[in-house]
């Protein structure tokens, strides 16, 4: 009698499992397809914990990282400009870099926190080499090299922000659009100072 009861229970369990799956073995694939197509779905990481995936990936993350590194570089070099520069225009430009890029960095940091994105906390090797070079320079030589870097660097950031205004993430796009005019002003100022130093 116990054996018959066990067989009945097993059969009922199999029937229940098939009913839950809609009786189709292909439903599992369609569920996975649905999850894969949703960029904000919950998923299991390797430890079995449920994690919330953010919608910031690929070009958005790269954009934010590049802006963060450029900003850190401008702030550091702006401090050097105030200390090592000779021209009052260069010193004033450096002060503007520290103020404006600190403000932009704070706004980017808030955006990154909202998107659960970890921004870099140090500059990359290329930007570090620029900082190291200018740290050792002073006076007129510093002014010329610094402003030359500012023209090139701000042109690169203007190009980056222009691309950012086409980003598919609305918040990233809004940040780029807000920051672009400020950086364009920096570029125009750097070009004007460069002309006066020749």
TrEMBL record:
Secretion signal span: 1-19
Keyword entries, A-Z: Signal
Domain DUF4142: 60-193
Family matches, as Pfam families: DUF4142 (PF13628)
Gene3D superfamilies (alphabetical): 1.20.1260.10
Region: Disordered, residue numbers: 23-57
PANTHER family (alphabetical): BLR2558 PROTEIN
The name this protein goes by in its record: DUF4142 domain-containing protein
Source organism per UniProt: Hufsiella arboris
